[in-house]
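Lab meeting tomorrow. Please check the following:
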Amino acid sequence: MEHIQPKRVLLTGCSSGFGLLTAIHAAQAGYEVIATLRNPAKKTALNEALRQAGATARVEILDVTDPASIQEVLDRIGPVDVLVNNAGILVMGSFLDVTDAEAQRVWQTNYFGPVALARAVAPGMIQRRRGLIINVASLAGLVGHPFNAAYAASKHALIGFSRSIRMELRPFGVRVVSVEPGYHKTEIIRANATLSEHFYDRQSPFFEWNRGFLRLMMDRVIPKAAGPEAVAEQIVRIIGMDRPRPHYVLGRDARWACRLQRLGLGAWLEKEVYSRLRRAVRQENRRESEKKARRRKTNTGSPPAHPEPPAPRTEGQALAK
């Protein structure tokens, strides 16, 4: 009986979230998994997570923004049957407060990195007349995202790239799928999300709005975000499909937002988001005024009426879990 070699799956951004869970589920499903991450300091934790899950995968260090790093990994692992471009970063702040260097870092990781990897693996797939490229984009790439313009734009570009090369690679039996999740509890909106250098710049016209947006995220969005498990499971199902759909919108919030867009209610959705943001700005301003009042009382020797809340995060600091 002929031995069938399992598909070799190359995944990026596997230190946490979608990437980690997809690596685990794909390995458990019998695929030959190469789980990659950028930071060598996180390699031990990734290996331990795989061990605890009873999953076997090869772990490689890969910087998707470095062509030499990409080529070195591909030279070591050999032909790739499935590429899952999952690595991504996010820098929060208004488009005026995000520096050129910060925006370029987002684009290099979220767009140019996936493009470089697709270009690196596609020739082999074309020669073998089979292959699958899965690009993990975002709902933000479909509907936009205030105070995350660079991230939303990079994901919008990734969706456009996926749709374009899907037609180019179709004659060669290579399929391209775009996965577009809504909010999920992953490190992209927690530890891997950083605040822009000028996020807390009081001279910025967006100072209050930056703070209000962060308050909205921490109080309303992140607590209600879905877990990442369902997205990872769907990606593994796509790997096993003979004829996957061109794109998958994942998450209740993402499906709801896209449905509103199709119904011509995109303007209403923007108005609703803006209304919630304005409320968050007012709430944050009240907190700031109360905090100043407590400080004044403390400086005059009077005890504060309430315990002092945690100090705001400094510029560029990553959001905590």
Summary: The chain has ten helices and nine strands.
